[in-house]
Specification:
The protein is mainly alpha-helical. The protein has nine helices and six strands; from the N terminus they run αααβββαααββαααβ.
């Protein structure tokens, strides 16, 4: 980082970067990330029917990971993803701004959803709607969710017996956001001239 940027940075910006790096370490040290676990899908044919099988991530370990991911996902948190992206973009005009922008684009793509589409009334539902509902209405029960009794896409699809597919989308979003957290942390570490977090082992299947 240029010395001028370092000296010009406001105290709350320093705290946000430090908070983000602390959360990134939590993510990196979670059992799911440390062991390289992922979600597994397969198709099973039974007579004339083909059914989708899904192995989800371990429930408690996944919830623990989401405690950390939520600190970055929620925009009012000190470690907010968008907040730290904007700090990098504000003080750097070169490779680090570009690197942070690339991670931000990936972050957006994950929340929009890719690979599996859910449609209601001809409208494609962003994966963020499923993730946000699970995170803030059913798991952590915070005031951040505007109307926890409202019936939305999450409830609509789970009521149709598609709960495993919806849960898989929720887990996929969280796992990929965790990857973005670590990638953004690499950008910040390089920008600040600090040490990166340890690398991640190759992924294993959920057990």
């Amino acid at each position: 980082m240029e010395r001028r940027a370092l000296t010009d940075m406001e105290e709350w910006e320093r705290r946000s970067l430090a908070a983000f790096r602390a959360v990134a370490r939590e993510v990196r040290e979670s059992s799911i990330v440390t062991n390289g676990l992922t979600i597994r899908h397969w198709l099973v044919q039974t007579g004339d029917e083909v059914k989708l099988g899904i192995d989800l991530l371990p429930a408690e370990a996944f919830r623990s990971l989401c405690v950390s991911v939520r600190k970055v996902y929620m925009e009012k948190e000190p470690a907010s993803f968008y907040k730290v992206h904007n700090i990098v973009a504000r003080y750097d005009a070169g490779e680090y701004r570009k690197g942070a922008g690339k991670v931000r684009a990936d972050y957006h793509l994950i929340l929009d959803g890719q690979g599996v589409e859910f449609h209601i009334g001809g409208k494609v539902i962003p994966h963020e709607e499923f993730f946000d509902t699970w995170l803030n209405a059913y798991t952590f029960h915070q005031d951040a969710f505007e109307d926890p009794v409202k019936t939305g896409p999450y409830e609509a699809f789970t009521s149709l017996g598609m709960s495993p597919a919806v849960e898989a989308v929720v887990q996929k979003v969280a796992l990929q956001l965790a990857g973005c957290v670590i990638e953004m942390d690499d950008v910040i570490a390089d920008w600040l001239g600090e040490e990166r977090l340890p690398r991640i082992a190759p992924p294993k299947q959920a057990q």
